[in-house]
Each structure stands twice: as C-alpha cells, then as structure tokens.
Amino acid sequence: MRIKPFLLSCAWLAAPLFAQGQAPSLRILLPERTRLLQGQQVDLVLEVRNASAVSNLKVMAGDVDLTAKFSRPAAAQLDCDETSDWVLRADLQSFGTVGTVKLQATASAGGTEVTDSRDVLVRPFSLPADGVRRNVILFIGDAMGTAYRDAARLVSRSTLDANGKNAFREGFFDDLLEMDKMPVSGMSMTYGSDSIVPDSANTGTAWASGNKSFLNAVNTFGDGTDCRWRFNGAANAANLPSILDNPRVETLWEYLRRLHGYRTGIVTTADVTDATPAVQGSHSGFRQTRFEIARQYLENPMLNGRPAFDVILGAGMDQFTAAARPDGRNLLAEFQSRGYRLVTTATALKGLSYGQPALGLFKGSASPAPASDRIRSAADVNMDVAYDKLGLARPASEPAPSFGGYTDQPMLDTMTGKAIEILSSSFGNQPFVLMVGFRTGDHTGSSVPVTAEGAGAFLFMGYMDQSDIFFKMAMALTGDTADGDKLVELLQSAKYPKSVGK
Amino acid sequence: MRNAVICGALLLAAPHACLQGQTALPVAEILRFSLTETAAQIARGMGQPVLVNDTDPLFRTWYFQTDVLDSHDHSHVLLFRKSDGALLSVTRNYHLPVRVDALFPEGRSTVHYWPDAEKPQLSVLVREYDGDRVLLAMGAARRTDPTTQVMVIRRSALPVFFPWLPITARREVSSAER
Strand, coil or helix: what is B88? Predict the structure, then answer.
C-alpha cells in the first residue's frame, strides 16, 4: 500500500525538479579527441535519452559495421531525471585501421532519428621486426612540480661550506639530482577534461591510456549515471554499479601484456591501490573504489581475467584482506594460489629471485576494516617516509612515526631494483614495462617536468600534453633499434635500463 | 585560524551558535546548513571553494577543505541544482571516524540497508528533520557506530540520489518538531 504513493510523490517532485529537455538524443561516450593505439581496447557505449524505445541501430567505424557488436538497448536512468533513457554497449572493442576513423551511430529513438559521431585517431603500433625489445620504466614523482625538485636539489646537493654546513658556493652545485642529469627535459600539461587542477587519477589516466578524463576517474570516461555519486560525494557501495559502468579504455601496461607478451609491474611507496599505481592496471569511475581496484589487479578486465601485473610492491595490505573487504575475499591467498610470492618485509623481499611473480605489501593497519562507504578500507596506509625508515630523529614539534608493527620496510631503490630483477629474469626473456611512484604532496595546476633518457628520449623534448606521454612511450618502443644492444647492456650492469621518467 | 573559518562559514546558517560561543559537537555543524542558503551566502560564509565542478548540465558542485584530510577527499561537498541554484545536499567527510549518536536520537532514527538487510553491503543511519532536510550517516548500522561521512540532503532529492531509501519525498512535520 505504501509503494504507490511513494512513487507518485517521487515523480511529482522529481520530474519538474530534475528533468531536462525532452527531445530525443544519442550520445557516443567518447571524448571529443579520442586517441587510441591500433588494437587498443575501449568500451563503446551509446546513451539514448528521452525515448520510449530504441530501434534500427546502426554503428559504423569508417567502412566497418559494428552494429552487431552492441548489446540490446537496456533501460537506464540517466542524468538523475525521470525521463526514459537507454544504454547500448559494445565492450572491449578496438580499431585495426590506422588514421582518423569516423565513428557514426544512428538509431530510431521513439520514432525520431538520432545520430552522433566521433573522429577517433588511431595510431600505428608494431614492435621492431628484428626482434629487439625495449623496456620502459616510468618514474612518477607524485605531484612533484619543479618546486619539489628544486627543494630536493637544494637539500641533497648543496655543497659544504668552510664551516661544514650545506650552502651555495657562488650559486653552483657540484653535483645534480639523477633526474637532472637525464639528457632530455620537457614539460607536461596535466589538465583534466574537467579540471585545471587535476588529481592523480585523471592525470594518470592520461599517461596510462592516452586519453584525458575527469577528476577521480581511473581509465574511464564520464557517463549519464555519474550524477548519482560524482557530484554529491555519495560514492559508496550502493552506487558501485553506477561507478563501475563508465566506458573503459585500455592502458599501455595492459596493451603490451595482452598483445605483445610484456611483463608488467608497479612499485610505490603509497598504497598500491592509490590512483597513481592504479592507473596502470584498473578501471573505475572513482579512484577510491580500492577494493575493486585490488580485485582488478587479480582479475583484470582487459586481460580476460588474468592478473594485471607480475610485480606489485608497496603498501596497502588492508585492501586485499578478507577482514576489510565486504565481499569477504582473501586476495592475498588468491594471488598466492595463482603463483605469486607474498612478501611483507624488506628482508623477505631481498630474498626473492628469478622471475616468479611477486606481491609485496609492506604496510597495513593493525585491524583492517571497511570504511563507511564500503568501497575501501578504513585506513589508507602508505609506507613510512625514508626519513623515518632510516631511523632519523624528528623534531619535537612533529609526531613520532608509527610503524604499527611494520618495522622492516624496504626503501624505494631496493623495491625498484628487485622489481627490475624479477621482471627481467623471466624464462621467456620478455621485455617489461614498469611504473615506479613515490609520493610528494599536493595537487597543482602547474605543468610538471619530464626527463628522459634512452632510445626515443628525444620524443620528450619541449611542452607536451600529459596524454602525449602515452604515445611517446609507445613510439619509443617501436622506433629505430640501432642502439638496442646497448639497452640490454645497461640493464644488466646498472639495473636501470633506458628509462622514461616524469 | 581554522575555527575562525568554520565559524564564519556557519554564521549565515546559525548565527546564535557562533555569536553566543556555544560549543556544539563537531559533527553537529552540518545541521547548521538549512539547505535554503544561496551560493552567494555560502561564499560569504565559507569563502571561495577550493574546487568547483561545473561540467554536469544539471548540477554544480563546490568543494571545501576546512579540515585535515588526505589530498583525495574534501571536507565539505556542496551540491547545487543549476536550474534554480538550490542547495540540494551538503556532505561532510571526516578523516577519522566520528561518533554521531548525539545527532540520531533513539526513536527518531532508522537504519536502512542496501541492497537488503539480509546481505547488506551498505548501511545508512537516517534521521528525518523538520522541513525538507534528512540527515544521513553513511555506513552506520547502529546509533553508536562511527562514520566518516555525514550528509544532509533535501528530502525531495532522496528519490533521485538514494532511490533505495524507503523515505517519502514529502513528510508532515510533527507537532513536536514545530
């Protein structure tokens, strides 16, 4: 008896408050400037608004008819209004034709013909025919603008004066930071599709997938159900279906792993499900869906359910535990059942060898539990900073570090070296792509420096968009192989192969 | 400095609380939003938001950071409807869980589960206030459960944003609440 009046009152209040224009429309959920590599997967999603029914769908990608790839129209509530809307999906599609592909969708929406189109730029990708394979290491100083870099140089490279104190000597440094010594420098513009000051999620989406997106998005584009959670802070378990239905785009890590047998890894001093590492191998409308991101590391949607990475090193144990996860899954055990070695201390990490995949989680909370929103753990646990790991005394004005029982945490260089060792020692001698991230502090609207060395480093000169980094990394893998042998030598001797750093 | 900012922010909604120097429960601050404030009033009280999301055709979001949170969440998320500028909801995020039982008196609060009480994936503690306001404590299944998110939202917006909450969009005000 109560349901009917409830629905009536909802319609009475909500319809005039939230409904927008009534004309039927069709929208392809791809950005205006969609750019993909040849064969890179993307979800093609169509939204039809204000239509009693949808029929006569026709979707063409150039001369290729994609209509049969699409699902039947599914009724949907888009834009948080009360109009009759529909969604049609063709998940995990790709384009084989290089160049600008005209994606054209047409349908009958309640008797009215509606249409939309996108120009998708598809860029070629093929590895060198001579079999030489390059590796990529992407170092990310999370939010590390020039000021942080200058501060690091001043603190660590200032020379001693006559009194034994750090000081300038006529404004020069005797030595520079390693990143300062890389032969190529550029600047990256990090703006998101909706934000001058972006966050790690949409800036990471740009370098990982080659496309821009909105604040907090991890390799996904916006859609009509975002209004349920994106603008009001109500991103929680009840809204997960609306958070996870956004169109997904494949990352370079997934692409190289799926099509070219690359081994993949992420190393971070943060929670491994934080946005910066997450963008290499997961997809979500909201970066804080940490439980889902951890699940996708194990069951990656672009890789037909295979794990996203061979090596995962960092903090954030809680997101993997049955105690914290509402689904009760013990992802630590599930990774181990798939052949991963689980390590939780620096000592155990140093003991790892050879190419067997590894999951290293070096910090968690004492009592893992879900957060109020039930999409992440209550504690966002990062590794302790190097200063504390070295046991240096903090000033009395600062709180003492709390290791919480995780006293044997590896340093970033140890994790990086071990990740390279594992990734480069596979039986198949496969190439690898690795992200190494470390936290600094704030978000900024400023461009950030990019430095590079190795084959293809010249690509990173000058100003570039953040999403260009994706294509430049890809181009560096496909180009001239004249110095390929040198790459291998450098890898073996220095443990740091030709790298691409930001 | 931070207290001054918060007090300034709340002056427009609860002048008595600030002027008389009352020390309300920290979590009670959200109730000082009547949801009848205009954007201009909010800006006068809270200052400029640190972030504005203006990309949606129907809604505009203002984000404020008046608390110490990690860099990914904002302390206050204010949702405005573009068509008439109405403030639809205010979401308050806390870095550490807070107790909210003082805001949810026994007998005047209810708990709801999504998708159902048998296998709940999310619980919400609900108190219906006078007028068009409803108070939500996300993730709380009992009055004494701590939470990191409290929201005050217009009752009329509930069917849109929380369609699974069995709360009618219109409600008569009881004599005790008048």
Answer: strand
In Å, how far is A374's CA from the nearest CA of chain B? 6
What is the average pLDDT across B45-52? 91
Residue among B122, B136, B167 with most chain A CBs within 10 A, to mutate: B122
Instruction: Measure the CA–CA gap between B66 and B4, rounded to whole angstroms.
Output: 10
Do the strands A136-142 and A500-501 form a parallel or antiparallel pair, or are they unpaired?
parallel
Confidence of residue A17 (pLDDT cuts 50, 70, 90): very low
Is B99 in CB contact (< 8 Å) with chain A?
no
Q: Which of B3, B36, B35 is nearest to B17 (CA)?
A: B3
Residue to mutate among A3, A144, A212, A231, with most B CBs inside 10 A, is A231
Residue holding tokens 């296998």?
B119
More confident residue, A259 or A395: A259
- A-B C-beta contacts closer than 8 Å: 133
Residue A171: its pLDDT value, please? 78
pLDDT of residue B175 exceeding 80: no
- For B48, other C-beta atoms within 10 Å of its C-beta total 9
Residue A245 clears pLDDT 50, i.e. is over it: yes
Q: Does B175 touch chain A (CB under 8 A)?
A: no
Strand segments, DSSP code E, in A8-111 are 25-28, 35-37, 42-49, 54-61, 64-65, 74-76, 85-93, 99-109
**In the beta sheet, which residues pair with residue A102?**
A119
Rg, chain A, Cα only = 24
User: pTM, whole model, 2 decimals?
Assistant: 0.87
Minimal CA separation from A406 to chain B, in Å? 21
CB-nearest partner of B149 from A226, A230, A373: A373
The 10 Å CB-count burial string (b at 16+, else e) for B113-149 is: bbeeeeebbbbbbbbbbeebbbbbbbbbbebebbbbb
Three-state SS letters, A460-494 = HCEEEECCHHHHHHHHHHHCCCCCHHHHHHHHHHH
E strand or H helix at A156, and its extent?
helix A146-157
Please give, rounded to a whole number of angstroms, the shortest distance from the CA of B31 to a CA of chain A.
17
Q: Which two tokens stand for residue A194?
A: 């909706």
**In the structure encoding, which two tokens stand for residue A286, read together?**
């909201």
Q: Measured between alpha carbons, how far is B91 from B76 in angstroms, rounded to an integer? A: 6
